[in-house]
Write a structure and sequence with these properties.
Elements lengths: L7 H7 L7 E2 L4 E2 L4 H18 L25 H12 L5 H9 L12 H26 L4
Antiparallel strand pairs: 1-2
Helix pairs in contact: 2-3, 2-5, 4-5
Length: about 140
């Protein structure tokens, strides 16, 4: 049976991860809807594909590198939009957004953590993901 490829962010959307509220220093808020967050993440990924000339990120860096391509730097409007969006994401949320949206990998816990630590960890990842997507929503707001 073939495995159906789905965008990891879409899976998290269906699980309700993108409906999280967080404290922004002044109030407990959710400035953008879960749908807006999903659209911004999808647009960021599409822009990434233009920037990287359609190649996904390398999953295993231990594999031998076969260089059959020419050096290419995306010069399209989408590629430039990706570069601007990437610079806009805060340093605290970038690792989570990068891992989930661009690499499409779940952030796994190390072995042997307690149930309480697992809950705190998952809550932290969800909060950072939503904050990062909100930054992208603000950036892509006029486009979406």
């Amino acid at each position: 049976m073939a495995k159906k490829n789905t965008f990891l962010l879409n899976t998290y959307f269906k699980l309700g991860w993108l409906s999280r509220r967080y404290f922004n220093g002044k109030s407990f808020c959710m400035p953008y809807s879960a749908e807006d967050r999903l659209k911004a993440g999808e647009r960021f990924y599409e822009d990434y594909l233009f920037w990287s000339s359609g190649q996904k990120l390398v999953a295993d860096y231990d594999m031998l590198k076969v260089d059959g391509s020419t050096p290419y730097i995306g010069l399209s409007m989408e590629a430039e939009r990706f570069r601007r969006a990437l610079r806009l994401i805060s340093k605290s949320t970038l690792p989570v957004v990068y891992k989930i949206v661009l690499e499409e990998k779940a952030i796994a816990l190390p072995k042997g953590v307690s149930a309480r630590e697992k809950l705190y960890f998952n809550d932290e990842v969800k909060g950072l993901l939503c904050r990062g997507l909100d930054e992208l929503c603000h950036f892509y707001g006029k486009i979406l």
